[in-house]
Write a structure and sequence with these properties.
This protein is an alpha/beta fold. The protein is built from 9 helices and 41 strands. It has a 24-stranded parallel beta sheet that branches. An 8-stranded parallel beta sheet has the order 6-9-12-16-21-26-31-36, with no helix packed on it. β40 and β41 form a beta hairpin. α6 runs antiparallel to α7 and α6 packs across α8. The radius of gyration is 25 Å and the shape is globular. The protein starts with a helix and ends with a helix.
């Protein structure tokens, strides 16, 4: 081939690239990028390659394996949709898989997250769990920092979680999403460490015009300056409903167990239980209400600080608080700028809330609109959606050690009340039932609960739990029996 022919081919190739934005080399991932034929992501290299192919950011992606991004450090990972001029507008389906060890460290960039900027009413990120993500955006004036998304605008994030690791930055820093501008976030949670200067939230840094529902955070939040919240730092013109936060919150001004500050936003059917401390405008649920409405909410965490402290609300300028309560014993606060204080006993009594119009499970005949449930005398109200249907044998307050002890007892006695697998049961109580229960139990608790279970179960010293050595035991319930139980469960028997 002559030199003129080679030159012609080169020029044509460059022209195609300029016109259509095609990379010189094809993407590593396969597939058509459509809903019916999505791009398949099954390695760390392919995940990183998405960020190198902006022409695909409006396409469909499907994660088909758990991947580890630990090989990418500093700024080496290609953030997907790095800013508002080049956002991610497509669909990423995590397919119930995990991405672990995502690390990004930068001191001069906005919109930091696995996805930097997501912008489109049809954009969706779903069914994905991040494990041990560590994001450090530095200490200069940079904003919109989260483990999953830096800024979400108009899109949807559903069934996504961040567990372990840490997220730090200056402004609009969240455990999962930094800044939610008009987006929908549902059925998500964060269990990590979050720190920032201003607008620091356990799940979302700043919620503006956005909706957050059926979400929770169990994060440790530290906001050096203004606005820090266990779930969201500030809710402006947005909606937060059916959510809760359990982590501790430390800040300066406008500090709340759930939300730091509320401005023209709506917060309904939510609660917070974490300890809250700060300087000014500190509340068990909300630090400051400039405007907007709070209804059917409660808080129980301790509240401490210097000025404008409240068991439920630290300071209320011109907002509305209705049918909401705080625990005077647990908070250490006898007053609040909104809400009604109750003793621990009354906070664990259903009529306290139903008399105020709350929707509890046993108050609705068809059961379709249930919002709250309670185990009277032992616990505070919980949201109905967070209580598993299977495995919650002892009072409807969530699956914990007492339920597991009951399962062990009934399972070993082959009582059909523990026959939960397959769906509807099969007439036998065996390890299939144990696996179903353990899967749900594990998804709502952590290793500390397993330790608590082991201790409680061993203290029972019940002979019906004496299963080792096989087949008839040795007359003592000890760790050998527990090991046998766990071995069979892990083996999938």
């Amino acid at each position: 081939m002559g030199s003129s022919s080679r030159l012609t081919i080169t020029v044509l190739a460059l022209l195609v690239i300029c016109l259509f934005g095609l990379p010189v080399q094809g993407a590593l991932y396969s597939g058509g990028g459509t809903e019916a034929d999505p791009y398949i992501i099954d390695t760390a290299a392919k995940m990183n390659d998405i960020g190198a192919n902006p022409g695909d950011w409006g396409s469909y992606f499907l994660l088909t394996a758990d991947i580890d991004l630990g090989g990418y450090t500093g700024t080496s990972f290609n953030i997907i949709g790095p800013d508002w001029t080049t956002p991610f507008t497509g669909v990423f389906d995590g397919n119930s898989h995990t991405i672990s060890n995502f690390t990004y460290q930068s001191s001069g960039k906005n919109y930091i997250g696995l996805f930097g900027y997501v912008k489109n009413t049809n954009a969706v990120i779903k069914d994905l769990t991040l494990i041990d993500s560590n994001i450090d955006a530095g200490t200069v004036h940079m904003y919109a920092v989260g483990s999953l998304v830096g800024q979400l605008q108009d899109g949807t994030v559903i069934d996504c979680n961040s567990v372990g690791g840490s997220v730090s930055g200056v402004g609009e820093v969240g455990g999962l999403i930094g800044y939610n501008y008009g987006g929908m976030i549902s059925d998500c949670y964060a269990e990590t460490i979050v720190s920032g200067n201003w607008r620091t939230g356990g799940l979302v840094g700043f919620n503006w015009y956005g909706t957050i529902k059926r979400c929770h955070a169990a994060t440790s939040v530290s906001g050096i300056s203004g606005l820090a919240g266990g779930l969201v730092s500030a809710n402006s013109l947005g909606r937060i409903e059916n959510c809760y936060a359990t982590g501790s919150v430390h800040g300066s001004n406008n500090v709340g167990g759930l939300v730091g500050g509320n401005e023209d936003g709506v917060i309904s059917n939510c609660y917070a239980t974490g300890a809250v401390d700060g300087n000014d405008s500190v509340g068990g649920l909300v630090g400051t209400i400039w405007s907007g409405a709070i209804s059917n909410c409660y808080s129980t965490g301790s509240v401490s600080g210097s000025f404008n402290l409240g068991g439920l609300v630290g300071q209320d300028s011109s907002g509305s608080v209705s049918a909401s309560f705080w625990g005077v014993n647990s908070s250490g606060q006898a007053s609040s700028s909104g809400g009604t204080g109750k003793t621990t006993a009354l906070m664990q009594t259903e009529s306290t809330f139903t008399d105020a119009g709350w929707d509890f499970v046993d108050e609705i005949i068809n059961g379709t609109d249930d919002i709250w449930d309670i185990c009277e005398g032992t616990n505070y109200p919980k949201l109905a959606w967070q209580i598993p249907l299977l495995g919650d044998f002892v009072c409807p307050d969530g699956v914990e050690a007492n339920d597991l002890a009951v399962l062990v007892e009934e399972w070993l006695l082959e009582k059909l009340s523990a026959d939960v697998a397959p769906d509807g049961g099969d007439g036998f109580v065996d390890f299939l039932d144990w696996a179903v229960f353990a899967n749900g139990w594990q998804s709502t608790t952590d290793i500390n609960d397993l330790t608590a279970f082991a201790n409680q179960w061993l203290r029972l010293n019940a002979y019906n739990a004496d299963i080792a050595p096989t087949p008839d035991g040795d007359g003592v319930v000890n760790l050998l029996d527990f090991a046998t139980l766990a071995e069979n469960w892990l083996a999938g028997i």
